[in-house]
Write a structure and sequence with these properties.
Blueprint (H helix, E strand, L loop, with lengths): L38 H17 L3 E2 L5 E3 H8 L4 H6 L2 E3 L5 E4 L4 H10 L9 E10 L11 E10 L4 H17 L5 E6 L3 H16 L7 H9 L10 H7 L11 H17 L3 E3 L11 E8 L10 H6 L3 E7 L3 H4 L7 E7 H15 L12 E5 L2 H16 L4 E3 L6 H11 L3 E5 L1 H6 L1 E6 L5 E5 L3 H12 L7
Parallel strand pairs: 1-5, 7-8, 12-13, 12-14
Antiparallel strand pairs: 2-4, 3-4, 5-6, 6-11, 7-9, 9-10, 10-11, 14-15, 15-16
Helix pairs in contact: 1-5, 5-9
Bound molecules: histidyl-adenosine monophosphate.
Histidyl-adenosine monophosphate binds next to strand 6, strand 10, strand 11 and helix 12.
């Protein structure tokens, strides 16, 4: 229904007040709109994720954004920053304690158990792409809603699975035009970690007074998390802290050697980072992180950047998680890449090197221009026929001026414009205008499709359409 104009209102009626907001609505802090200009990055990343994941036989899984809060407090660890400081937890109208997922892994592990995937052929390889939520300190590269591409291999404990995951992530990052820097470490199993925790407590005890308040607490409750702290002083102290690889039991040591052997074989450049522990408690044995080259790094604020470079992605093995959720002991490993950070790195790379990380958009082939009311109606039908034939087509049926329509076609970089006016309707013809040279020809409307196929596909060798 067309809206009534003010002057259409009955004269005896008082003017109708719109219920206006007091202040103009604004984006919530830490959230981000993805505008049309950036969609080419998103589409390219999602398509690349889908195709690489399926090449490696991963099946897609979609888990809900809302899960029980206990899934994450129990799975990720109460003393992790994600659970302690960043989780969007709330009690719903029914009194349930819920959370917006801060990551995918715990939800995927829950789904594995809940849908009896343990009786499927093992390992089960799953990937997910979508938004996760963390009440992080907002800045470039750190958002409160960000998107991850997450891959999990559940039901396989061998080093080859860890190496294949790293290779997949590496290949993905290379495919989107980046030069990923891989850091790897092993944090051992629960047994070798308890030995290491004692060593850490011993090392940090004499330095307790200079640790940040969080780390003072962590020292007694979860000393491994101190290695993950972003505070400047805690970072400095980390340099001389003991290395966990020196405390690995024989079996964890041989697992780690197996992983690096595969990485050497696959020829992936990596570096052993002895202090890498990752910020989630479910990890066992292998942990890894991918960083951008310095010039591709998201800006961050200066302090943050000095303290810890921002990772493009990370992952590792989590052999106890399924059992912690009530299943039988099931080894697993996985990773997640942060899509916003990858896009920032792609843009930085494009700006620094003049390279284009996203393939250019296919140009639009045809613009349908019309002149006159009747021609406009027929032009709308023609537009539908062209789409059905597989051409990429643009139009501006709301514009009446032919000049304005052709200017728009020019701006869009269209190859051919079709012009349909009153005379052409009467004659059963249509004008084809070559937008590059400006020359025009009048053709029989019935032969139009054939002519367009010849011009756009055969003559140009362009198979952008059928
Ligand atoms: P994570 O390291 O916590 O791992 O997150 C993965 C990636 O998400 C990070 O490396 C980063 O690129 C991106 N990211 C994290 N927080 C933010 C943020 N606030 N803003 C923008 N990007 C962010 C996990 O989530 C694990 N679930 C990975 C995993 C899968 N481990 C085993 N399987």
């Amino acid at each position: 229904m067309p809206r009534k104009k003010k002057e259409d209102q009955k004269p005896d009626m008082p003017p109708i007040e719109l219920p206006k907001m007091k202040e103009r609505p604004q984006l919530v802090k830490g959230m981000k709109d993805i505008l049309p200009g950036d969609q080419c990055y998103w589409e390219y990343i999602r398509d690349t994720a889908r195709s690489i994941a399926s090449l490696y036989s991963f099946d897609r899984i979609d888990t809900p954004v809302v899960e029980s809060a206990a899934l994450f407090t129990h799975g990720l660890g109460k003393l992790t920053d994600i659970v302690e400081k960043e989780m969007y937890a709330f009690i719903d109208q029914g009194g349930q304690n819920l959370a917006l997922r801060p990551e995918f892994t715990a939800g995927v592990a829950r789904a594995y158990l809940e849908h009896g995937m343990n009786v499927w052929p093992q390992p089960v390889k799953l990937y997910a792409v979508g938004p996760v939520f963390r009440h992080d300190k907002p800045q470039e590269g750190r958002y409160r809603q960000h998107n991850q591409f997450s891959c999990e291999i559940i039901g396989e404990g061998k080093p080859a699975a860890d190496a294949q995951l790293m290779f997949l992530a590496y290949k993905f990052l290379k495919t989107v035009g980046l030069m990923p820097q891989l850091h790897v470490n092993s944090i051992g199993c629960l047994a070798c970690r308890s030995v290491f925790k004692e060593q850490l407590i011993e090392y940090y005890r004499s330095k307790r007074s200079v640790l940040c308040e969080d780390c003072k607490r962590r020292l007694t409750k979860n000393p491994l998390r101190i290695l993950d702290c972003k505070n400047d002083t805690c970072q400095e102290l980390k340099a001389k802290a003991p290395h966990i690889v020196d405390s690995l039991c024989e079996s964890c040591q041989s697992h780690f050697m197996g992983v690096v052997d595969f990485l050497d074989e696959l020829d992936i450049p990596y570096q052993h980072n002895p202090h890498l522990v990752r910020g989630i408690d479910y990890y066992t044995r292998t942990v890894f992180e991918f960083y951008a080259l310095k010039e591709e790094s998201p800006e961050g604020d200066d302090d943050e950047k000095k303290a810890a470079p921002i990772a493009l992605g990370g992952g590792g093995r989590y052999d106890n998680l399924i059992e912690m959720f009530g299943g039988v002991s099931t080894p697993a490993s996985g990773f997640a890449l942060g899509i916003e950070r990858i896009i920032l790195a792609m843009k930085a790379r494009e700006a620094a090197g003049g390279v284009r990380c996203v393939p250019p958009r296919k140009p639009i082939d045809i613009f349908v221009a019309q002149l006159g009311e009747q021609a406009k109606r027929k032009a709308m039908l023609l537009f539908e026929d062209l789409i059905a034939d597989g051409f990429s087509v643009a139009e501006s049926f709301t514009k009446d001026s032919l000049k304005a329509q052709l200017e728009l076609a020019n701006k869009m970089g269209v190859k051919l414009s079709l012009i349909l006016g009153q005379q052409e309707l009467i004659d059963g013809t249509i004008i084809i205008r070559n937008m590059e040279g400006g020359e025009q020809e009048v053709v029989d409307r019935k032969k139009l499709m054939k002519i367009l196929h010849r011009k756009l596909i055969v003559e140009n060798g362009d198979i952008s359409n059928p």
